[in-house]
Amino acid sequence: MKDVPLSTTCYLIPFIVFYLIWEKRNRLVNLPSVSSWWGMLPFGAGIVFFWLGELGGEYLTLYISFWLVMVGLCWMHLGWEKLKAIGFAFILILTMFPLPSFLYNKISDKSPEKRECQNVTDVPKASPKASPGILYLKEGSRFKVQGSKRQEAGRLESAWKME
Fold it and tell me: Which pTM was predicted?
């Protein structure tokens, strides 16, 4: 289970959102549906974000555009009071979208220069001539550095210089 990326939990969010809206069904039935043209503001912003996302190739912009269009349509058809009643569910939808890679790498410190070596295919990047006599063995998902002064399980640090 440790090899599963954290972004796979996003598939559960729609079910949670539907449950939250279903829990508020009695309140939603009692509130009046007053159509509002104010919903065109997030809808229009969503269309602009969609164009920017398509031109720029950034998926987060496309995800935000989807969210803004959805909020705008609900605001136009259901009205402000009903939108406020299910507002938490709409905010929760934002957690479904993964962060862009440049932001994720900054937050999680998983940039390619700083990440750990996780499988055997990452090891041959360095030159074996640069560090003779160092043997790398895979034990499950961990590495042992043998033949050097530094023996450590779990991390492949700077026993040799990666190119």
Answer: 0.60
